[in-house]
Amino acid sequence: MHEKILFLSFRKSTYDYFINITKHFPSDNFDIIQTKKIFSVSIGGVKILRKINLKQACVFAVDEFVAKRGVCVPRVFVSTYFMLLSYIYFFRYYGVINKGYSKVLIWGGGKFRQRIAVQIATVCNIQIYYFENGLLPKTKVLDKKGINYNNSVPRERSFYECYKGGLELPKELTPRVSKHVKKFNSQKEALPKKYIFVPFQVDYDTQIITNSPWVKNMRELFHVIQEIAENSDYHFVLKEHPSSSINYPDLYKKVERIHNVSFHNSYLTQELIENSSAVITVNSTVGVESLLFHKKVIVLGNAFYGIDGISLSVKSVNSLIEVISNLDSLEFNTQLVDNFLQYLYYDYLIFEDADMYENFAKFLLAK
Known about the structure:
Elements lengths: L4 E5 L2 H11 L7 E5 L19 H16 L5 H23 L5 E5 L4 H12 L3 E7 L5 E5 L13 H6 L18 H4 L10 E5 L6 H4 L8 H12 L5 E5 L9 H7 L5 E3 L5 H6 L3 E4 L3 H8 L3 E4 L12 E2 L3 H9 L8 H15 L1 E2 L4 H10 L2
Parallel strand pairs: 1-2, 1-3, 3-4, 6-7, 6-9, 7-8, 9-10, 10-11
Antiparallel strand pairs: 4-5, 5-12
């Protein structure tokens, strides 16, 4: 008897992925369910409700709501709304998840509705598979543990010291296309000769809300950079995230009064990385991409690549000031970095090639 696999789609793009993956399944031992088409509720979920932590999903939803909209609505009102909504989603999802599946595939897993589904699957002893866009050019992630900081990539320096690589790594990044054409296609101003690149992230992304303990949004990141720039010989080049819907007119006004901090949205990320002396990031994929060019990467949040000898994790403004003042003497083991990247590229990630969907299927069908 074949095990049964659930493909749980929260949006149309993932539904299309699932269709292509299941074309490589040897039988029809799967179901593809779009959550927006789940209209009934299952009262049977009452029996496991006490084992489910809906508060965790609600806290994320409130933080995401506030980060996206920047409104000053009392958190208690927003929290009450999402708590009621979480019960609705719980009873809707339980009826389709608890049907004898052994595995479930979910995109991301860190958003409000996804967290509820993950909770149900966990309590029902269903193996969860997470997938998302890759960490290196033209790749995808497929992981049984999680994504980003929660992924299964080894964190021990010794693992990469023993890893035997030697294969070629990509040197061309895939440019992100932005909807904000004017902002990212304006006339280029000359880059400073000596600068540190600081890529912005999406304020309402799980990477910031969940995995950034002391820098809670990009305005806080700006203030951190502003503080360390005061007594630094380096210039700090900022670039907004192409996918973010948040604008920062207040920060642009502040930049006018700071001689060594500036925005350079019109440059490709690769160009900003290659010409920089170092890269400061909360926990962006840009940090991994910067390692491809052997840049000194300083990480402010929780990042899976915050490994001794590969990047440097910093937990406070004072520590960051000290690191920047001694940046010239800061060294990383380039062989260790390459071993880490080769493990990611050849042993962990799935290539976006003609065999991608078949490789997804093989991974999911493996015993």
